[in-house]
Amino acid sequence: MRRIFIALLLVAASSAAFAADQLRIGVQRSGTFAWQLDVISRHGLAEAANLNLTAMELASPDAGKLALNADAVDIAVVDWLWVARERALGMKLQFYPYSTAIGAIMVRNDSPIRRLADLKGRTLSIAGGPLDKSWLIVRAAASRHGVDLKRETTLQYGAPPLIYQKLLQGEAEASLNFWNFCAQLESRGYRRLYDVRQAQTELGLQEPLSLTGYVFPESFAAAHKDTIERFLAVVRQANDILLNSDLEWDALRPLMRAEDETTFLALRERTRQGLPRRSVSAEETDARALFKALVNIAEPGLVGPAKELDPGLYYHPSSSGGE
Predict the structure, then answer these.
(1) Residue 225 — left, alpha, or beta (φ > 0 → left; ψ -120 to 50 → alpha)?
(2) Where does 93-245 have alpha helices with state H?
(3) The pLDDT of residue 290
(4) Residue 65: which residues within 8 A CB-CB, separation 6 or more?
(5) Is residue 105 within 8 Å of residue 258, measured between CB atoms?
């Protein structure tokens, strides 16, 4: 169980490694970022890039946000809507796309809930809290169906594993959870009521958008540009391995904790589908359009005082760095 966090302490033994550039990485035990970091560790990608990555275990996505604000980590995977809000409030963070994989509202296969309007008067549990990007996007799309999910449902918030259990135990009639927990629910007889990707499409997006990304302080990126670019090059190498090697996934099985082969394959394929393939500029263009749609329905406390996406939010690597 502790293998991942032992593996994430990527400290080389040679004297050259002591001169490596250090990065403090925030990572959730239940998150898919941990899988990517395990690939980096086993293949020695960080050492080859003269990087020393040290991991800080996080209990939830919100813990990553707190760690960034407290300068306890240099990099964590969080969502761009939160970054947009923080920038509008004066905290200058930057975002680089991590994954387009996205969750859904899940219900039991035999549930009478068949459409968004059927959620009225029901209990809906939400992973990640009231500022979660999927929740804000689904709310915006649902309003176009004449459904106010905030006022017409009983809401529960919690960390993804807790929300997963609430639906299994019948404490919620529907749940909006992260994609990897949705994949596990599907293997246990649950179905997708409403996919966040469908909400994106209804709000005007034609291509999948990376809602989660590697986030770091803008000042840190400016002072350690070469270090950040080497880190991003390393994660792109890891993504290539994940995309092209089935054997790599066999090595990741213990970390994935898939209950059966069906769940394992679903996690593998959805991870691969979510690997970013578009330029940062293309992602930023769509994020700008989506942000405008959300500003029109969200309270200022949810997206901050900004009416448009801050032009400095996205980190653009150098021309040789994967733009």
Answers:
(1) alpha
(2) 133-143, 149-152, 160-168, 179-186, 196-202, 218-223, 225-244
(3) 92
(4) 76, 78, 82
(5) no
Residue ranges of E strands in 222-291: none
CA 320 to chain centre: 25
Beta bridge partners of 21: 51
pLDDT of the residue at 307: 87
Q: Are 303 and 291 spatial neighbours (Cβ–Cβ below 8 Å)?
A: yes
Q: Cα–Cα distance between 269 and 39 in angstroms, integer?
A: 17
**DSSP state letters, 81-101:** HHHHHHHHTT--EEEEEEE--
Amino acid sitting at position 317: P
Q: How many helices (H) and strands (E) does the chain have?
A: 16, 10
Low-confidence ranges of the chain (pLDDT < 70): 1-19, 298-301, 319-323
Contact 174, 113 (CB under 8 A): yes
Q: How many CB atoms lie under 10 A from the CB of residue 219?
A: 11
Is residue 157 within 8 A of residue 140, CB to CB? The reply is no
Residue found under tokens 């909400």: 199
pLDDT score at 304: 78
Cα separation, 86 vs 78, whole angstroms: 12
In DSSP notation, 258-316 reads -SSHHHHHHHHHHHHHHS--S-HHHHHHHHHHHHHHHHTTS-HHHH-S-SS--TTSB--
CB 19 within 8 Å of CB 258:
no
Q: Which sign does the torsion angle of CA 121, 127, 129, 130 carry?
A: negative
Spatial distance between the Cα atoms of 275 and 109, rounded to a whole number of angstroms: 29
What whole-number distance in Å separates Cα of residue 166 and Cα of residue 127?
11
